[in-house]
Amino acid sequence: MPNKKEFAKERERLNKLILDNSGIEIKRFFNLDTIIYKDGKLSARIKEMLGLVASLVLRCDDCIKYHLLQCKDRNLSTEEIQEIFSVGLIVGGSITIPHIRKAFEFWLDLND
Amino acid sequence: MPNKKEFAKERERLNKLILDNSGIEIKRFFNLDTIIYKDGKLSARIKEMLGLVASLVLRCDDCIKYHLLQCKDRNLSTEEIQEIFSVGLIVGGSITIPHIRKAFEFWLDLND
Amino acid sequence: MPNKKEFAKERERLNKLILDNSGIEIKRFFNLDTIIYKDGKLSARIKEMLGLVASLVLRCDDCIKYHLLQCKDRNLSTEEIQEIFSVGLIVGGSITIPHIRKAFEFWLDLND
Amino acid sequence: MPNKKEFAKERERLNKLILDNSGIEIKRFFNLDTIIYKDGKLSARIKEMLGLVASLVLRCDDCIKYHLLQCKDRNLSTEEIQEIFSVGLIVGGSITIPHIRKAFEFWLDLND
Amino acid sequence: MPNKKEFAKERERLNKLILDNSGIEIKRFFNLDTIIYKDGKLSARIKEMLGLVASLVLRCDDCIKYHLLQCKDRNLSTEEIQEIFSVGLIVGGSITIPHIRKAFEFWLDLND
Amino acid sequence: MPNKKEFAKERERLNKLILDNSGIEIKRFFNLDTIIYKDGKLSARIKEMLGLVASLVLRCDDCIKYHLLQCKDRNLSTEEIQEIFSVGLIVGGSITIPHIRKAFEFWLDLND
């Protein structure tokens, strides 16, 4: 799974770059961004699904990959991922297809 | 709940207008749009949550209202709705706030 | 067709408001915005179709109405309009449906 | 200026509705949303201009109105507002025009 | 034209990946996505133009390339393509320019 | 600063490609796009900030880089850039973070 490690490492490196050069506001945003996905009335598992479909309809490949990693850690099955993509596809239209293509490949790599 | 009834009635009236004047393609899209939210590996309940957060980050008031009605039928609590909004808010930013305002009001009306 | 007249009048009133309070740049943009839809290698008729589908996938009701008026002046049929909507719907997804609803109603009013 | 008062009052009413029904995350987001526009290396005046142009290219009428009110409090001139709109218009295209129309009207009302 | 062949091959490979791992809903969406661009009241040629401008204003490089390939197969001239880009540019604004740059290069490659 | 030079050179090469193959409309748009950022009531310095935040919330990496180069030429400090990013982040949400990551790296490279 080199794909996965590289992605996570590059993400971390750049996040550090931001935080080292940022004021308190950006740090607080990043912090809030972590807290919101924690277990609440809704489980972290469901919240990651929500983050994934939101990233898909907004068409952000990096965000999709990040949430796929989280979904993998929470043991989502390929069938579940595929149904999340279905909802994103019908809501967001064919313009999401190139992102679904890359997402599927990344997901299958994670499960190899 | 006049708000709810009116919304549903107007939606139905206009959908009929579309379908009466449409070819097979639009009819098939509408049909697919219904099927995708049915129970599969993921429950219809979770799929409605996905539809709601997708509608929120794409900032469509009508779509948000529609999914709130579905969420009401599937007995989501105000706490669950509020956590879905949190995810949408952090992903989509403050630009989603005016939509969250209207959505909260609509949701509370539904629960009166 | 009061709907049509009102829409056109309100649009004109507000455009005048902008131009009366604007510098040369906004005036030039508005001017360019008119020129681009004129007959070229592509007919004005086809360009209006392009403007309509672009407005639909970007989900701007006012822009959709404006291009529908232009399409009416260029004698597009309801079948043609409906096929333009099909393309917008498949590209842009179900999030465009509330706009298609209003657009269909406006178009049918124009043809009454 | 009834337009202005009504807008501010309605906004406040709905914000209260959200905060009364929200957990800590949404409250923290709202709080951060206030802090970010305060004087820093960049003045609050410039930050409001940034908020205005961001709202314009993302095409959110409510957000535009809110920032116009803030810009008024910071004594921006109509010429300055109009140049902010020019940048938003060139970046965001003609799809922003219906929003500029409403924004201009709201701004001129504020200055009556 | 290695650019063209590679693009088409990669697209096909990833579409197969999706379809091999998808349920009936995604397959039906893909099917509908093909049907909608076929000759109807509007010719397939015009529908491809619509797909192209929609992809441009939604700023999806892969979708733009796909529709450019279809436009090439339907013998659109560089002048026609350029006028489609003009409409997309005025509607979508300068934010579309980086996509127009890549699109023009891809198109000229196709015509070499 | 090879990063910077390469970016500027590639941008110029492709702009030339567009202009060599374009009619008067696209040329006029490009021209207007230059004029709008010139000193007016608002300084070119502030207008570049506006262009930067607009590019960030619309999530266009190329546009962000271009405006960062302009901001560098106008001597913006890292603190100022970071506050512009804060506004973009709160307005546009976490979906802008991958773009902020790349933007920060590009900016720091420019200042090495």
List strands and helices in order, with pairings:
The structure is a homohexamer of 112-residue chains.
Chain A: H1 2-20, H2 24-35, H3 44-57, H4 61-73, H5 78-92, H6 97-110
Helix pairs in contact in A: 3-4, 3-5, 4-6, 5-6
Domain module count of chain A: 1
Summarize model confidence as the mean pLDDT of chain A: 94
Instruction: Tell me the name of the CATH class of chain A.
Output: Mainly Alpha
The computed structural class of chain A is mainly alpha
* Helical fraction of chain A: over 70%
Main beta sheet of chain A, described? none
* Uncertain parts of chain A: none
So what's the oligomer here? homohexamer
Tell me, briefly, the overall form of chain A. globular
Query: If you compute it from the alpha carbons, what radius of gyration of chain A comes out, rounded to the nearest whole angstrom?
Result: 15 Å
Succession of helices and strands of chain A = HHHHHH
Question: What is the CATH architecture annotation of chain A?
Answer: Up-down Bundle
Portion of residues in beta strands of chain A equals under 5%
- How many helices of chain A? 6
